[in-house]
């Protein structure tokens, strides 16, 4: 498998007509504006189910990265992995990194390695599954007894929360109450 390390430019979010997206998916045109811009749109709208559904229709994992300015970068990977291309023109700290898994949302070994590397330059990360997500938030303070669950007890992952999976429905209900 060849991993692209070609720097990518930011993407303007735009929801394309469903037929245009489906046509690009059928053609496996993974960098088509209809796909990339629609993924960015779903991410900006926090439509996690829509984003996961589009990634699932591609039969690939996707990654979305928001920088300090709110600019967006999108990568499309393989069935089980998505490599992040260098985000040309981005500014740290990155606000949010989102990526999809083929079915269940969890912090894989590769995901944890990425969070370890991104400690200090990334604020929040999400993994999207078919009907749920998991979230980790970077915290600067050191781990102490009553601070809640972390991805690890020491090293860089001790700065990342390990939050319980939440369904998209529960998340929408919680947001509508707030």
Summary, kept brief:
The protein contains five helices and six strands; from the N terminus they run αααβββαβββα. It has 178 residues and is an alpha+beta fold. The N and C termini lie far apart (45 Å).
Measured between the Cα atoms of the first and last residue, the distance is: 45 Å
N-to-C SSE string, H for helix and E for strand? HHHEEEHEEEH
Helix content: 25-40%
Radius of gyration: 16 Å
Main beta-sheet annotation? 6 strands, mixed
Account of the protein in words:
The chain is of the alpha+beta class and 178 residues long. It has helices spanning 18-26, 33-44, 48-58, 109-118, 168-177, and strands at residues 62-66, 72-76, 94-100, 122-128, 132-137, 166-167. Helices cover 29% and strands 18% of the residues. A six-stranded mixed sheet has the order 2-1-3-4-5-6. The relative contact order is 0.13. The mean pLDDT is 91.
Write the SSE topology.
Elements: H1 18-26, H2 33-44, H3 48-58, E1 62-66, E2 72-76, E3 94-100, H4 109-118, E4 122-128, E5 132-137, E6 166-167, H5 168-177
Parallel strand pairs: 3-4
Antiparallel strand pairs: 1-2, 1-3, 4-5, 5-6
């Amino acid at each position: 498998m060849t991993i692209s390390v070609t720097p990518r430019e930011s993407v303007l979010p735009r929801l394309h007509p469903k037929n245009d997206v489906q046509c690009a998916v059928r053609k496996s045109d993974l960098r088509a504006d209809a796909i990339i811009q629609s993924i960015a749109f779903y991410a900006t709208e926090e439509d996690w189910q829509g984003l996961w559904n589009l990634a699932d229709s591609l039969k690939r994992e996707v990654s979305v990265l928001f920088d300090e300015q709110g600019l967006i970068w999108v990568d499309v990977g393989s069935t089980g992995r998505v490599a992040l291309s260098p985000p040309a023109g981005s500014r740290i700290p990155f606000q949010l990194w989102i990526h999809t898994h083929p079915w269940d949302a969890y912090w894989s070994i590769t995901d944890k390695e990425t969070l370890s590397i991104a400690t200090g330059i990334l604020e929040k990360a999400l993994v999207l599954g078919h009907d749920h997500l998991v979230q980790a938030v970077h915290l600067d303070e050191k781990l102490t007894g009553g601070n809640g669950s972390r991805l690890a007890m020491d090293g860089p992952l001790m700065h990342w929360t390990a939050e319980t999976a939440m369904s998209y429905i529960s998340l929408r209900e919680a947001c509508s109450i707030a």
